[in-house]
Amino acid sequence: MFHWRKRSTAVRASEPIDREESAAARPRIGLALGSGAGRGWAHIGVLRALKEAGIVPDVIAGSSVGALAGGAYAADRLEDLADWATGITRRRMFGFLDLKFWSNGLIGGGRLAEQLRRSFGALQIEELPLRFAAIATEIGTGHEIWLTRGSLVDAMRASYALPGILPPVKIAGRWLMDGAVVNPIPVSAARALGARVVIAVNLNSDLLGRGTVIQDHAVDPPADDAADAPRRFSRVMIEAFNIAQDRIARSRLAGDPPDLVIAPKLGHIGLFEFHRAEEAIKVGAEAAERALPELRQAIAALG
Question: Over the stretch 211-232, which tens digit does the pLDDT of each residue have?
C-alpha cells in the first residue's frame, strides 16, 4: 500500500483567507491544467518548474488528472503526490486497482479514494490559499460543473471519473464524471475565476494525425482476426478517447485561447502508463522551463 507522508495542512479552517489578494507588482496568474491520465504526472514537473522560477498561481482550474495535480499543489501536497507517483510500478499499479467488471466502471476507485482521504482528510476547497476549480461533467445533462466549494477529495474524484473506467461520483444530488468530456483544458474557468494571465498545460499536443479529413477512401472486406479482438478492443477504446480529447480541446482553445500554452511532448507515453511518472515529470519540467521567457513577457505585458 502506498503511503503519502503526513504533512500539516497548508491553510487551516480557523485561519482567515483572502483569496482575492494578489501580488501588486503583477497580474493575477491562472493555470488551466489539462487531462491526460498517465501523462498527467507531467503537471508535477510543470508546477515544480514554475515554482522554482518564482511564478506562483493565484488561480488553478483542472480537468481530470489536472484537478488531482492542481489540488495537490494548492493543498501543499505536490511532493507527496510526486513521491506516490514515482513509486508506482506495473505490478503495484495493478495491485492498487480494485477491478469491478460489473459496476459502473472497470475500476471501483475505492482504494484510490481511500488514499486521497488519508492525505487530504476533510480539507475543503474554501480553505485553500488560492482559487481552485475541479471541472466535472454531469451525467444525463452534459452540463459542465465547476466544483469550487466543498470537499477537495470529492471534487478531484468527480473530475477524474473516466467514463467506463471509474464510477461516477454523486455530489449535491448530481452524478458527475470526468471533466475532460466537456472541457479538457479549462482556460474558461481559470479566466472566469479572476486570472488575468492564463497558462494552459496541454498534455496531448503531440498526438499526431488528429483532426484530418480523408475525403476519398475505399471499403475493403473485413479481416478475420477474431482471436485478436480483446487486445484490439482496449486499444480502440484508448484511441477513441485520445481522438475525442484532441477534438474537444482544439475547439475549446480556439474559442477561449490562453495567453500561453505549455505543451510537454508526451505522445510516447500511453494513456494508462501511470508507472512512467519519473519520465513524465521530467518532460513536464523541461517544457515549462522552455516556456519561461515567453511567460515572463506575457506577465510583463499584461501587468
Answer: 555 555 666 665 555 555 445 5
